Amino acid sequence: MTTGDFYDYADLLDGTEKEILLRVREFMADQVAPVADEMWTHARFPHHLIPELAKLDVAGLPYRGARSLLTGFVVLEMNRVDPSIGTFFGVHNGLAMGSIDRLGSAEQRERWLPPMAAMEKIGAFALTEPEGGSDVAAGLRTTARREGDTWVLNGAKRWIGNATFADLIVVWAKDEADGQVKGFVVEKGTPGFTATRIENKIALRTVQNADVTLTDCPVPETNRLQGAGSFRDTSAILRQTRGGVAWQAVGCMTGAYETALAYAGEREQFGRPIAGFQLVQDLLVRMLGNVTCSLGMVVRLAQLQDAGVYRDEHSAMAKAFCTARMREAVGWGREIMGGNGIVLDYGMGRFVADSEAIYSYEGTREINSLIVGRAITGIGAFV
Fold first, then answer.
1. Which residue intervals define the domain Acyl-CoA oxidase/dehydrogenase middle in the entry (predicted)?
2. What is the DSSP string of 227-266?
3. pLDDT digits (tens, 9 = 90+) for 127-148
4. What Å distances lie between residue 12 and 9, 90, 238, 272, CA to CA?
């Protein structure tokens, strides 16, 4: 269904799924693409597009019985045009809604998921901390102390997407009583919660990442995710969303490939389009090869998810591999476009910059490689 889908993987979708995907594509082309560069340049979020995005009815697809393959292609389509919008959606739909769906009680799911699916309430996910990174499990410093029917949260979080305007923020904190990590839904306006936008980013500038501070922040027991009793439960969420990041990477490099291909057909040097030069064709084919092999991997990943045999090492392999291939592909696209590849006007600059963030979040290549390495050798090599 796209120039970058060289092996027609989208044909694995049924008719209804293809119609949904087409709606997403039209929305991204007609409403996101015209404002994407301006929003990115000024680090502003297009709040006016949230009601239009809601009309697509794609938030919460995984929790309404949709196939993982459809969800993955929706992610691809968003990131193919604007990885910032793709990241915003991934935080809301995957991390925040996923936490509530998987770890919330029946009452919590009924209370929060319908308005989140309608995008009347926007979600965020607060796990990463200022001094933490790959050692997030052992290094979590945010604390939760129970006082009767209330939990009191203290600590700080960093790089929290959507946090400056989210209605519901899933916050992970260590219980002072038992030392276990638990999840809490902090609602907008809760005393002691502040979110300050991170400035001067060079990637995903449209995404409103924030530094979050929790100072004696009260959260009722009814807002504690009832199924989250340890970091193992947190990891189950990351297992699902890490696969989503692999789909994001495929979308980002697909957009870069299609941009480079179109440019090569129009840009003339020495009296003819540069698409007719052997070295340019070589770079285009390398880009397409990275897209194609990565798309094949995430399609199989979706099939494993739907079959219920999806494991940590599956998502880790996909995230590590696809983001590395993305980084190569956008670099080749920039090379094809020369100096024009570093300015927004020609469509490549955002892909080059945004790929750096996608490459890093949801586990670095090194950490994901160690997850796979442990699975294939039976030996952990993390320390």
1. 124-217
2. T--SHHHHHHHHHHHHHHHHHHHHHHHHHHHHHHHHHHHH
3. 999 987 766 767 799 999 999 9
4. 6, 23, 26, 38
